[in-house]
Design a protein that fits this description.
Blueprint lengths: L1 H12 L5 H7 L14 H14 L3 H14 L6 H14 L4 H14 L6 H17 L6 H26 L1 H14 L3 H11 L5 H13 L3 H14 L2 H13 L3 H13 L6 H10 L3 H13 L3 H13 L3 H13 L6 H10 L3 H11 L5 H13 L3 H14 L2 H13 L3 H11 L8 H10 L3 H13 L2 H14 L3 H13 L6 H10 L3 H14 L2 H16 L5
Length: 538
């Protein structure tokens, strides 16, 4: 059956079978003759199909339309839709309508057994339309002809592979050497991986080193790696050590990691520690991370201890943390608290939160309380926010209310915004009322405004009444304007009329303008009218 499909594909692609000829040839076009066993939809389809064969176009069109409408889920509906386009082509409908019908069919059923025939008919119709002066079809036809040629070529490639044997392999190798198409060479490289042959393997190794196309080289590398044989490992290692192309070496390192072979750990560790090119060294570290064995984690820890590059050590921390292994927490803690490199300490702190365990949160609290550098304290706060949960929320709230300094309190509020979900304005309201640092209060206001909703607007209105500082009242008014909600209009209108500070009243007018709805414009007109009545309009 597979070989039959290949032959049929060639015949269609080469135009050796017409629609009617194909109809007679295809074994599924017509339901079997045993009417007792046929379903109702099969019977109806057979009636419509016989009308097509008899070239009764008007009756066939009506029968096919009725079938498609009545049985949209039938196994025959794709066949029916193709023949409906064919009938449209052969009947009195315009060529453009038939072209669009085929076009919609191919779009809806690109992998159906009729798709290639539909494309072929489209090309023929398009040529006729171009001859009739419809030049807009020319570009479409050229594109389709190119696509059709490529599909025939690809079918030939797969047929060569499936035929097997040394002759088939040699044909593929010759075709690769002669081809200027990177797409074709890429397909050939993939197919070479299917041959259990030293000759094919050697060609793949050559392609990896010499093909000018990055995509082709990658395809060859994947084909080599998928064999997961001692020979493929040797080739990939050789590429890593000797190939001048950095991209080829990087791809080979990635392929080695994807093998998930613990015996490769020493090699990858050596590259990570000795490779002068930082990008390749990082790739080696990531490839170690792809190996699930515990020995890979041990190698990553050795890299942390032995590497002189902060960049490589940071990568090792990231890869270790990605393993989500709580047993690695003491290592990350030691780095966060004691490493002489500030960036290493910050990276370790950031990644601790990704290991979701109670011990991780305990370590982050320890870092927050013992670290002297502000950068590490801030990293701990954001990590606590990322960790999430009620305990993390309480730690951040306490820091926001009574932090050691203004910057730390502000950072705690920003981290808190990652923990507190919408519908909890009370937490930020508490910070607005109790925080001792102005910037912490401003950050809380910003977080509060971002929550949106009726409850947030009510809370902002309540704060506006309580607040004594004119600058903070101005900020609250600005936040109300940013809600873009009509619910904020009464609060802003009252503020614009009654606030004791002109800067707050002016901000309220600007906030109404920012809301910009009809109700906001009515409020502005009311303010103007009121001012006119007392002679204040300038």
């Amino acid at each position: 059956m597979k070989k039959m499909k290949i032959v049929i594909g060639f015949m269609i692609g080469l135009g050796l079978i017409t629609a009617t000829g194909w109809a007679g040839f295809h074994p599924l076009v017509q339901p079997s003759a045993g009417s007792e066993e046929q379903t109702e939809d099969a019977k109806k389809y057979k009636v419509a199909y016989l009308l097509v064969l008899e070239e009764k176009w008007t009756e066939a069109a009506k029968a096919l339309d009725a079938f498609i409408q009545s049985y949209p889920k039938s196994s025959w509906v794709v066949d029916a839709r193709f023949w409906r386009c064919y009938v449209r082509e052969k009947s009195e409908d315009s060529q453009e309508q038939a072209f669009r019908c085929y076009q919609e069919f191919v779009k809806a059923y690109p992998t159906s057994e009729w798709a290639e025939e539909a494309r072929s008919n489209m090309i023929q119709l398009g040529r006729e339309l171009v001859e009739d002066g419809k030049r807009e079809y020319e570009a479409i036809i050229k594109s389709m002809e190119k696509s059709s040629d490529e599909e025939v070529t690809m079918a030939a490639l797969y047929a060569l592979r499936d035929s097997g044997g040394e002759n088939a392999l040699q044909s593929l190798l010759d075709l690769y050497d002669q081809s200027k198409s990177s797409k074709l060479r890429s397909r050939i490289a993939g197919l070479l991986g299917d041959f259990d042959s030293a000759k094919a393997f050697q060609k793949l190794a050559e392609i990896v080193r010499k093909d000018p196309s990055l995509e082709v080289r990658r395809e060859a590398l994947e084909a080599i790696a998928e064999k997961e044989s001692p020979e493929s490992v040797l080739v990939l290692k050789d590429i890593v050590q000797k190939e001048p192309s950095l991209e080829a070496r990087r791809s080979a390192l990635e392929a080695l990691g994807e093998m998930n072979d613990p015996t490769l750990i020493p090699f990858l560790k050596q590259i990570a520690l000795s490779e002068a090119n930082a990008d390749l060294a990082r790739t080696a570290v990531h490839s170690l991370g792809d190996i699930k064995a515990r020995e890979a984690a041990d190698a990553l820890q050795d890299i942390l201890k032995q590497s002189k590059s902060s960049e490589i050590r940071e990568t090792a921390i990231d890869v270790l943390a990605d393993r989500k292994d709580a047993a690695l927490l003491p290592i990350l803690r030691g780095l966060a608290l004691g490493d002489p490199d500030l960036e290493i300490r910050r990276t370790a702190t950031n990644r601790i939160a990704e290991i979701k365990s109670k011990e991780a949160l305990t370590i982050l609290k320890e870092i927050l309380s013992s670290a002297k550098e502000r950068e590490i304290q801030e990293a701990a706060l954001f990590a606590i926010g990322e960790f999430g949960g009620v305990e993390a929320q309480n730690i951040l709230l306490a820091t926001a209310l009574a932090g050691q300094n203004e910057e730390l309190a502000q950072t705690a509020v920003e981290a808190l915004s990652d923990v507190v979900k919408d519908g909890r304005p009370d937490i930020f309201l508490e910070i607005m009322r109790k925080a001792k640092f102005r910037e912490a209060r401003r950050s809380a206001l910003s977080c509060l405004a971002e929550q949106k909703g009726s409850q947030t607007i009510k809370t902002l209105g309540q704060l506006l009444k309580e607040e004594k500082d004119p600058d903070m009242r101005t900020d609250i008014v600005d936040a109300l304007g940013e809600t873009k909600s009509d619910e904020a209009i009464p609060i802003l209108l009252d503020t614009a009329k009654t606030d004791a500070e002109i800067q707050v009243r002016t901000a309220a007018v600007a906030a109404l303008g920012e809301i910009g709805t009809p109700k906001a414009r009515e409020a502005l007109m009311e303010i103007l009218k009121k001012k006119g009545e007392v002679g204040e309009v300038r």
